[in-house]
């Protein structure tokens, strides 16, 4: 997988955690049980992302260890303790603590604070991501981080540079998909044939095919993290007909809507 794809996936996961942190999560009573429930359901969300990415052949279907474990971490001004798992690298733990401490030290607000966390670490063999949220109590005496450790072998990441024109064309098309791809190619003084060849090389498929897959990730966000109906989601993401969205998920990729947790609709996250 090209590093450009890795960065796009990483950005989508980060955006999902920001949306998750903005949900009206019940924080009046922070018990270990309620925190573990939040951790469990946010893990379901992340695992659903991974499942779709594997279905789309963006992540390798032959690798089963992208998701590693959930972590429930308790922070105070002077201590950091993992509540539900074995120890992790002390440098990783300190980096997580450093992200949370400024919020514990902030005495300008007496309201609970929910912070999205998205932290990377790289070793010789793997690239790790710790993604989730941290909830600071109203009195700022303690915070709990609900994180998920994921990892990707560095051998799956190809690091050569993507052509600048292709990156710019992607950003432009994402903002305005009504623009003709041939016209965009002409604007960048690139032949359409050369553009499609580069797309397959760097994106793993044709440009428009990858755009469809990316839109599926955006739809997945709304299915899990909003109470919009499927028809409303189809309209929001500019599918001209609900049936087109249905066919894309159900028929083309065999990823039925019933397998996608509707966390907000089912009121799981907000109890």
Question: What would your notes on this structure say?
Answer:
This protein is α+β, with helices and mostly antiparallel strands. 46% of the residues lie in helices and 16% in strands. It has helices at residues 3-21, 32-55, 90-104, 164-175, 181-187, 192-203, 207-225, 230-236, 242-252, and strands at residues 67-75, 80-82, 113-122, 126-136, 143-153. It has a 5-stranded antiparallel beta sheet, sandwiched between helices. A hairpin with a 6-residue loop joins strand 4 (126-136) and strand 5 (143-153). Helix 1 packs parallel to helix 7 (207-225). The radius of gyration is 20 Å and the shape is globular. Residues 164-263 form the HTH araC/xylS-type domain. InterPro entries: HTH_AraC. GO terms for molecular function: DNA-binding transcription factor activity; sequence-specific DNA binding.
